[in-house]
Design a protein that fits this description.
- The longest helix is centred in the first third of the chain and has 21 residues, at 20-40.
- The protein has one domain.
- It has a two-stranded antiparallel sheet.
- By secondary structure, it is an alpha+beta fold.
- 43% of the residues lie in helices and 13% in strands.
- The chain is elongated.
């Protein structure tokens, strides 16, 4: 095997991490995460599941996907995910941890 000198940082990887192709792949994985979350989250009214939104942005030197949950029509989104123990210790509801559960499912794919 030949000894290959690969520059660091690798210009190809640096360029690819900011490419449209990379953004499309990152968005696709974000949409898969969104679908997994929508499947496992509690669905009394489906509002919380419908509120999940995926966007992409550049952080540092690469595209990242961000999923947001909740919003004006779902004021209980944070208390559902994180529980109410800190703000209402006498009537605390446990956290659902659906976002982490969805990430753990994604790790098995």
């Amino acid at each position: 095997m030949d000894n290959v000198n690969v520059p660091s940082p690798n210009p190809f990887i640096t360029e690819w991490l900011l490419s449209r192709e990379c953004r499309a792949l990152v968005f696709e994985v974000g949409e898969l995460y969104q679908a997994v979350y929508r499947e496992i989250v509690a669905k009394r009214t489906r509002a919380l599941a419908r509120s999940a939104r995926v966007s992409t942005g550049i952080e540092g030197d690469r595209w990242v996907a961000v999923m947001s949950v909740g919003g004006p029509g779902v004021p209980y989104g944070l208390s559902h995910e994180y529980g109410t123990g800190r703000t209402n210790p006498d009537n605390a509801l446990p956290p659902a941890n659906d976002l982490n559960a969805a990430l753990q499912m994604m790790a098995t794919l």
